[in-house]
Hints:
Elements: H1 17-24, H2 30-49, H3 58-78, H4 81-85, H5 87-99, H6 107-131, H7 137-157, H8 162-167, H9 171-179, E1 183-186, H10 189-192, H11 199-202, H12 230-234, E2 241-244, H13 249-252, H14 259-277, H15 282-294, H16 299-324, H17 331-339, H18 343-361, H19 363-370, H20 386-416, H21 421-443
Helix pairs in contact: 2-3, 2-5, 2-7, 3-9, 3-18, 3-19, 5-7, 6-14, 6-16, 14-16, 14-17, 14-18, 14-21, 15-16, 16-17, 16-21, 18-20, 20-21
Amino acid sequence: MAKVQPGEVKQVPPRISFIKDILKQPWYPGIIVWPTFFIFGFIVYQLLFGPDAAHDNFGTAATWVLWWPLIPLIFLLLGRFWCAICPFATLSDLVQKVVGLNGPVPKFLKKYGIWLIDFFFILITWADHVWGIVESPWGSGILLLMLVTGVVISGAFWERRTWCRYLCFLGGLSSNYARAGAVELRATPDICKDCKTASCFKGNGKVPGCPMFEFPRTMDTNARCNYCGYCVKSCPNDSIQVSLRVPTRELWFIRKPSFEESFLAIVIVGIVFIQNITMLDVWGKMLAFLENLTGTSNYAVIFTIAFLIAMGSTVALLFITSFFAKKTESTTVNFARFGYALIPLDLAGHLAHNLFHLLAEGKSIFYTFIALFTEMPEGSPALVSNDVIQLLQFALIGLGVLGSIYTVYRIAKYNYQDDFKRPFLVHTILVILLGILNIYLFTLPMMSRM
């Protein structure tokens, strides 16, 4: 069972009974899963066989202007709810029912799954910039088909949602962001202590077991719960509750911090930096400088260097601060601990970057949809002015900085008690530095993507 940790005040979070009531219904999550699955199929069709130009293609607009900007917000507000209705998860379930061998998860996936997820996320981000996947409807369609192939193979050979838990490129991102989420699903320890069944994990014959390999009875994290509702339906004692909580709270008391998860958190800071820079006028000057420095004009080589510098410099900064804050702990232990404190800033930077695309190109979703039936309307795709977008970006970064600083404070207090000042100070300086750099980049005019 999850226990109260030093520095943590035991309290019962406010429950959200109406969400639990929805999770109990036999029609959930199917009522959302199947429309989402068929919409996904239509989007893939549009990407592969629709207009060649991104600004004319509904699939491109729906994927990169609507879904991608909204996904981190969904993780923040509702945890990994998207993972319950994701078309890839639905496809995996279908494959298992038809041809699934339901073999156990390979040991190497259990051991290295998070690193594979980190690698795939970085690789796809790199590939987008090198080959222009977002700007190419066909390229986006091929990417989705490649992911579908992985899902089918995983579903055919391994049990439950092995793809979602150990291989999905969004898995690490969703796990980190869901930890900062405002909603949690947990069992009630006082009820579960006398339970003689494990139906919340194994299922009960009518309802499947947890698809994400979690044991809800002892689960103390949002990292892998996808709110599918199976444990709520199968629990014979009505133990599972859905509650509100303070965003970022779960990050304060992590007992076994994961170096891999913290590594992804700091890498995302660097990725957001390079994504912002490539949309600025200064990017052309940086390319020219790197071309002169390396003696090559190959864009893949030049971008790879810039990409590695952006990620490597942020990782190095966290290592440096973790070294100066180490006290009685090793640098790697502090790296793992305080990497989680960057997740609120990650979320803010990710949302602020994607907010530009949603608000500067939002009407393209409507325009391209209308174009499926008649001539495309003309006009600016922007929903609001650049000044409004910029103010919202500044506000998000400000909230992210405050959230990360407070999380640094709580992590330092939890791990060092009265001797927390030094680790708190050095990591706070890092957060402020990264926040200032984010704000500076958002002060510069950006180019629309579509």
